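Structure in, sequence out. Go:
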């Protein structure tokens, strides 16, 4: 599977949207990737996760971890394809953590899986949680890297698609300066 195939899946399901969006990172962007538009298609989700798993099949992954929400579905499917367990992290009082009795044995080889990365903040938090438990991160699998390859997690990172999409601090956003209102997520822009 290559970038063109992944982009086709995202475009076919209207997962790539154009407008004026407020991203989870707090940045603004004229392009938004609504991963749930593609993830609601089981055949695409399965194919995408098989590809992420294939990229790490020789890394002796013992556990796959993803952050809540979109990362849960992807991490589960990747773990299923690798024949291993999966956990997910949640935020408690603003801090990423394991709940539900999840615990990593020291030395466990862990693959982190996430849906969309812009700044990499959530993945870094998951990496910190994994390392604090003694887990050994072997890599990061991504559906989409919106940073254009600028994020560095200190481990091999395998995005299925790299997009070099503009993202601005609100005070520097040209769309804000033009008075363009924020686009409601789930609705396409003009």
């Amino acid at each position: 599977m290559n970038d063109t195939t992944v982009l086709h899946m995202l475009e076919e399901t209207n997962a790539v949207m154009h407008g004026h969006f407020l991203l989870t990172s707090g940045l603004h962007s004229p392009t938004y990737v609504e991963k749930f538009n593609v993830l609601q298609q089981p055949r695409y989700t399965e194919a995408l996760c098989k590809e992420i798993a294939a990229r790490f099949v020789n890394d002796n992954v013992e556990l796959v971890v993803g952050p809540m929400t979109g990362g849960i579905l992807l991490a589960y499917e990747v773990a299923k394809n690798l024949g291993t367990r999966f956990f997910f992290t949640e935020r408690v009082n603003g801090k990423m953590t394991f709940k539900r009795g999840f615990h990593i044995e020291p030395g466990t080889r862990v693959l982190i899986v996430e849906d969309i990365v812009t700044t990499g903040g959530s993945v870094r938090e998951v990496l910190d949680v994994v390392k604090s438990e003694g887990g050994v991160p072997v890599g990061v699998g991504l559906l989409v890297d919106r940073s254009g390859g600028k994020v560095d997690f200190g481990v091999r990172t395998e995005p299925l698609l790299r997009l070099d999409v503009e993202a601005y601090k609100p005070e520097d956003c040209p769309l804000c300066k033009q008075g363009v209102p924020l686009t409601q997520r789930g609705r396409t822009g003009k």
